[in-house]
């Protein structure tokens, strides 16, 4: 689908079919492509077909990058067309599994919220916050929707602000405060004949639209390219011109961590790491009509991988494994002193 295609002009069924065909051509990207196809099927109203795609992914012999995310999307979709019991069972399973990725938590909590299960939604958001944000000095960009959703539900429940609500307020970049955006009385103003109330609501809606546009303007992380030791050795042996860029694997890993910390310190959010392979890099170079030995191609390759959903969020969640693949926790590896 062209990015400039108006949403109302999209043939969601045709777009889903195109994405399924593309997934068959590029099996390494099948997970991301089929998730997009399922989203189009949901938008077309064919929710059973979307569930079929989710089941296809979950039954695939290949390991999924984000199995909890697929289950969360399946649960949300099932509930929308009458399969409440199955959806609840999947949601309970996700909560019990306690994934370190915030996205499944947000999806299941919002599903509960949309069906007026506000207490359960608040409990789910809070479980995720405790798991992912306890003793975390700076919440990763991917956890912001978790905090904003929690704030919204607690506002509807009339709960008093706590530390995480205060943190959500601090992270909010909208010119309108979260308390105002999440005010349950806002719906009343939509039926008001008072021009001042209507103008205030228009300002709030514009602020929300600005926030959504800001999030959509960065659909994938700012990603740094990581080469495993074997891949890096093969890369430098094949293309000696890259030896200056990668003097050693240890130096390469240290540069990745230092670069990400510098970006974070400068205020850049939504950071990630993409892992390269030599065959993939060579194919990308061929598609660009450029030599793989061209250093300028490396950041373009990283951006392409991130756009294809290959980025892993940095820093890893609390207690998560280090991004370098050592098997140690991040705090005991490259996260020491972070």
State the main characteristics.
338 residues; mainly alpha; three-stranded mixed beta sheet; 16 helices; 59% helix; globular; disordered N terminus; TPR-like_helical_dom_sf; YecA family protein
Summarize the structure.
With 338 residues, the protein is mainly alpha-helical. It has helices spanning 12-25, 30-44, 47-58, 67-80, 84-97, 102-114, 118-133, 144-157, 163-171, 178-181, 186-189, 195-216, 229-238, 249-265, 278-288, 297-307; strands at 222-226, 271-275, 312-313. It is built from 16 helices and 3 strands.
Biggest sheet, strands in spatial order?
1-2-3
Mean pLDDT: 86
Number of helices: 16
Helix content: 55-70%
Strand tally is: 3
Give the structural class: mainly alpha
| Terminal CA distance | 41 Å
SSE order: HHHHHHHHHHHHEHHEHHE
User: Spans of 5+ residues with little confidence (pLDDT < 50)?
Assistant: 1-6
Main sheet makeup:
3 strands, mixed
Shape: globular
Q: How much of the polypeptide forms β-strand, as a percent range?
A: under 5%
Radius of gyration: 22 Å
Organism: Streptomyces galilaeus
Protein name: YecA family protein
């Amino acid at each position: 689908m062209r990015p400039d295609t108006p949403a109302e002009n999209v043939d969601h069924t045709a777009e889903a079919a195109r994405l399924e065909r593309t997934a068959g051509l590029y099996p390494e990207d099948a997970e991301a492509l089929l998730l997009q196809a399922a989203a189009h099927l949901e938008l077309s109203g064919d929710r059973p077909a979307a569930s079929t795609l989710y089941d296809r992914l979950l039954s695939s012999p290949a390991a999924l990058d984000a199995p909890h995310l697929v289950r969360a999307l399946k649960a949300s979709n099932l509930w929308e067309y009458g399969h409440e019991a199955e959806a609840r069972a999947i949601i309970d399973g996700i909560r019990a599994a306690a994934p370190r990725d915030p996205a499944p938590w947000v999806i299941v909590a919002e599903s509960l919220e949309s069906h007026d299960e506000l207490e359960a939604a608040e409990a789910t958001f809070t479980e995720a916050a405790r798991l992912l944000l306890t003793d975390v000095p700076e919440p990763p960009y991917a956890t912001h929707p978790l905090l904003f959703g929690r704030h919204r539900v607690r506002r509807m429940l009339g709960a008093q602000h706590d530390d995480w609500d205060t943190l959500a307020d601090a992270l909010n970049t909208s010119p309108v405060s979260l308390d105002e955006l999440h005010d349950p009385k806002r719906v009343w103003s939509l039926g008001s004949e008072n021009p001042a109330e209507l103008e205030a609501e228009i300002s709030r809606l514009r602020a929300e639209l600005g926030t959504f546009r800001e999030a959509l303007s960065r659909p994938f992380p700012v990603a740094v390219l990581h080469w495993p030791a074997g891949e890096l050795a093969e890369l430098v042996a094949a293309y000696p011109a890259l030896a200056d860029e990668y003097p050693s694997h240890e130096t390469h890993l240290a540069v990745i961590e230092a670069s990400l910390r510098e970006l974070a310190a400068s205020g850049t959010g939504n950071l990630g790491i993409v892992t390269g392979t030599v065959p993939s890099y060579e194919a990308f170079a061929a598609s660009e009509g450029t030599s793989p030995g061209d250093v300028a191609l490396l950041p373009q390759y990283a951006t392409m991988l991130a756009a294809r959903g290959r980025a892993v969020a940095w820093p890893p969640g609390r207690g998560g494994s280090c991004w370098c693949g050592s098997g140690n926790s991040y705090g005991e590896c490259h996260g020491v002193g972070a």
